[in-house]
Description:
Elements: E1 2-8, E2 12-18, E3 24-31, E4 43-44, H1 46-63, E5 69-76, E6 81-84, E7 94-95, H2 106-112, H3 115-122, H4 131-141, H5 143-148, E8 151-154, H6 155-163, E9 168-170, H7 171-174, E10 180-181, E11 186-187, H8 189-195, E12 204-206, E13 211-214, H9 217-223, E14 230-236, H10 237-244, E15 252-257, E16 260-267, H11 273-278, E17 284-285, E18 292-293, E19 296-299, H12 301-311, H13 313-322, H14 326-331, E20 342-344, E21 362-364, H15 372-393, E22 403-407, H16 414-424, E23 428-431, H17 436-448, H18 455-462, E24 465-469, H19 473-493
Parallel strand pairs: 1-5, 5-14, 9-12, 15-22, 22-23
Antiparallel strand pairs: 1-2, 2-3, 4-7, 6-8, 10-11, 13-14, 15-16, 16-18, 16-19, 17-18, 20-21, 23-24
Amino acid sequence: xxxxxxxxxxxxxxxxxxxxxxxxxxxxxxxxxxxxxxxxxxxxxxxxxxxxxxxxxxxxxxxxxxxxxxxxxxxxxxxxxxxxxxxxxxxxxxxxxxxxxxxxxxxxxxxxxxxxxxxxxxxxxxxxxxxxxxxxxxxxxxxxxxxxxxxxxxxxxxxxxxxxxxxxxxxxxxxxxxxxxxxxxxxxxxxxxxxxxxxxxxxxxxxxxxxxxxxxxxxxxxxxxxxxxxxxxxxxxxxxxxxxxxxxxxxxxxxxxxxxxxxxxxxxxxxxxxxxxxxxxxxxxxxxxxxxxxxxxxxxxxxxxxxxxxxxxxxxxxxxxxxxxxxxxxxxxxxxxxxxxxxxxxxxxxxxxxxxxxxxxxxxxxxxxxxxxxxxxxxxxxxxxxxxxxxxxxxxxxxxxxxxxxxxxxxxxxxxxxxxxxxxxxxxxxxxxxxxxxxxxxxxxxxxxxxxxxxxxxxxxxxxxxxxxxxxxxxxxxxxxxxxxxxxxxxxxxxxxxxx
Length: 500
């Protein structure tokens, strides 16, 4: 018997079949494009994504060569909602967190609820990236969709629902809506009433790892799954990533190196709202029971992909032709020493502490002898520099992060892991399974079916650690000096970048 972990992200979906000891039996991946109907609008077409998720699952199941999948679970991006009907009909697009729609509702929510009260209930700082402002936009600008929607589902719950499960959302993803009471583990009627949204349109909140149904017969036949395959509630992708690298206990931290670079420390007990809000730090339920997490994030692999497509398109095409990894080739070009350039990673909406929506990226220090390797290394450094202030600040609010476990596509790069260790001054450990989101989802599937008595048992059975990267004292000193210069860049530039 095996376990299937599915990970649905902003730009692609993955499916991996794992043995009970964490060995990947098969893997499948597919990409999809963001839809941009107007400037500032970014969404996904759920019909297209659902077709590619089905194809990815079928490929992974086929690749397992007859090893029967006992259970599956889905991790996914947060915030974005999919409107569905009772007959599992998809009713409209899914607005992404970086979509600008809903910003006009923030003053009303601030006036009716108040920032600190919202934080005490939900644990998040009011912002347009969350589900609630976009739900209000759908209500007022797509009233037919809103009226017809039986449920508005987060992506993990949407995929599970389309597979045959009951409409549900785990606690970690529920928190991303702004409508969830983190202490009561239920929807907040007070916040819903203030926003004027129908709480009945939201799915039932359940713990990650709860059994929520079985795969429907016709879907199982299409995908090559056994009849009655159990569906278990998944989690927010960052929380699933953390499970997949064994980050379940207080004092541990994850470095999720995907489209966004996200550092996620684990802690117990709610922290005071004042200092958490000062630094723009959310409080979210972890997929591990009794644990909370917060997120320090900004653009990461998204900028490396921009670099690839802008400076190395021909290299990518050639690598694709011969079956090589273009990123491996490009990273060979970066200098061993710190780059002579500085990159301000504001290429799109930024993360905490400022959540800037009207800014721009900057590359400083270009000369005639600048190479594209210099630019790539500066991008890798810049995305870590962006996070350093907040990584240093979490101790101020009583959150420890003594060691980082790295996961995601970026964690395959020794160079980027060493840069992270040198800039942050913390050891970074790579996990053997780079796609830890799928592994974390599979671990939840195992817990939900009783294969493992607890997530701790699942970690012991399925997680294997790899190389450890310690900070280099000499480079650490160099990066401290360069960080001071980087830190001065935004105050110097913001008047020119349209920030508000």
